[in-house]
Amino acid sequence: MSELIALTPGEKTALEKLEERQRHVRRGAVLQRENEECGELFILRRGLMMSYVLLDDGSRQILRFLFPGDMLGVSSAVYREAPETLAALSDCVVSPFDRAALAQIMIDHPRLSAMVLVYGQIERVALTDRLAALGRTSAKARVAALLLELRNRLRGTDKTIANAFALGLTQEEIGDATGLTAVHVNRMLRQLEDDGMIAREAGRVTIVDERALVHTANYVNRYEGLNLAWLPKPRD
Question: HTH crp-type domain: which residues (predicted)?
């Protein structure tokens, strides 16, 4: 949240309390399973996670990739059963907290409550972009958009990242996020490389021609262009 607003000491303390407990989650482990009863929310402190749903044919649709600082399972707060599965793509550390802690923050710090709404809307619009892409754009555009999204989100956790980053995903995982087979993902990555937009080496991707990649993907960074002037004043 400090990327978007200047947090007061009281707001920082309230957020730090949510992170008092830590739980290690091994790569591949499920933190929360779809359709199971859920009582906790989480903040991702370290690592990369994903949220997904399983379809009737057994296939998986990845909804979001989750990065350090993200609040996980917020949608589960309004349901008795989790609407999505949360799983670790790398060794992770999360901080679990219950609904009552979130409710108390909303009472004591309305601006932080508003920021939870802000991030929820950013995620909603990003998912809308993904939905439109799945139905209306080419396979190359979907993969290009995902690469840009990953690079931009990783920049939020590591300011040293410029145009090169560790991909951290298998081609199957990219396919489950973009509605493509792993074979098709491999073909699209090679096309982007052949077109001079990206370079790949040892699990890392370098964006060589960002303007062309953005144009190919018709990509919009939903973490930019925000209007937060309406946020309530902090109480401390």
Answer: 137-211
Domain 9-107 belongs in CATH node 2.60.120.10: yes
The size of the chain, in residues, is 236
The top-level CATH class assigned to 138-217 is: mainly alpha
Integer Cα distance of 82 and 127 in angstroms: 18
Q: Quote the CA–CA distance of 170 and 176 in Å, as a whole number.
A: 10
Global pTM? Answer: 0.93
